[in-house]
């Protein structure tokens, strides 16, 4: 049971309805947006930042989703994980990639680049910074804007995971659970 009930259209003020309408995807409004619509000013401003991280990031989409999924896994955010399993698969991840993301940077068969991104994500989640060796390896592959986008992606999805977990936002219909994707919880 959510701590904050998703806002129904018939309960919304005109400002809240406007925000709900702006966040309609495929004809519906996801529970995250219906929950945050209780604070329309925050929702309005947050979606600008979140939109950059999700759609305007300089990281390649597959690599961005790898980082987002690892963040959702490390934060035990089933809502975030499930939503981004769907997005990640559209952006080039497959079931083996999803399994490796859950297992972490030491997963058997993981590419060096994917392991590096998972390691950077883990360091940010654990230490709130990327270590010098990991940073140096990242800087050999990614430009300055991509490095900034990487850090902000982990930060954005850590924040979102904290909100989703705290508000106990329920997964939307059709969004897979941890068990349905990798057979276990973090």
What is the overall shape? globular
Distance between the termini: 21 Å
List the total number of helices: 10
CATH level-3 fold name of the largest domain: AhpD-like
Helix percent reads 55-70%
Describe this entry's structure for a reader.
This protein has 186 residues and is mainly α. The chain folds into two domains: 9-54, no CATH class; 59-182, AhpD-like (Up-down Bundle). It is 65% helix and 2% strand. The protein has ten helices and two strands. It has helices at 14-22, 31-36, 40-56, 61-74, 78-90, 95-103, 112-127, 132-139, 144-167, 178-182, and strands at residues 24-25, 28-29. The chain has a two-stranded antiparallel sheet. Strand 1 and strand 2 form a beta hairpin. The model has no long low-confidence stretch (mean pLDDT 97).
Summarize the structure.
The protein has helices at residues 14-22, 31-36, 40-56, 61-74, 78-90, 95-103, 112-127, 132-139, 144-167, 178-182, and strands spanning 24-25, 28-29. With 186 residues, the protein is an all-alpha fold. β1 and β2 (28-29) form a beta hairpin.
Describe the secondary structure blueprint for this structure.
Elements: H1 14-22, E1 24-25, E2 28-29, H2 31-36, H3 40-56, H4 61-74, H5 78-90, H6 95-103, H7 112-127, H8 132-139, H9 144-167, H10 178-182
Antiparallel strand pairs: 1-2
Helix pairs in contact: 3-9, 4-5, 4-6, 4-7, 4-9, 7-8
Output the keywords.
single chain; 186 residues; mainly alpha; AhpD-like; two-stranded antiparallel sheet; 10 helices; 65% helix
